[in-house]
Structure prediction request, 51 residues.
Amino acid sequence: MDVFYAYTYGTAGWMAIQAMPLIISPTVIIMLLSPEVREPSRTSSSSPTRQ
Prediction:
């Protein structure tokens, strides 16, 4: 049974390591996977005024 527990904890650890980029910065991962090119969003101070 010790081998089973070692495999289980090892697999859980490996999956946690793989999940860390999605937990830390999901927008970067989504941007890398997105097929469309997007312009950076503008801040409120640089947005044009509406007329």
